[in-house]
Amino acid sequence: MVTVDHPGRAACEGFVHDVFAARYRADVQSFYPDLLEYRDDERQRAVVGMRQASLGPLFAERYLGMPADEAIGDRFGQAIARDELVEVGNLALENPGDARWVIAATIQFLHEAGYRWVLFTATRVLVNTFQRLGMRPMPLAAARPDSLGPQALQWGDYYRTAPLVCAGPIASGFRKLHRPGATSQPRLDELLAGMTRLARRLRDDDPQREEG
Question: InterPro entries this protein is in (predicted)?
Answer without folding.
Answer: T_hemolysin
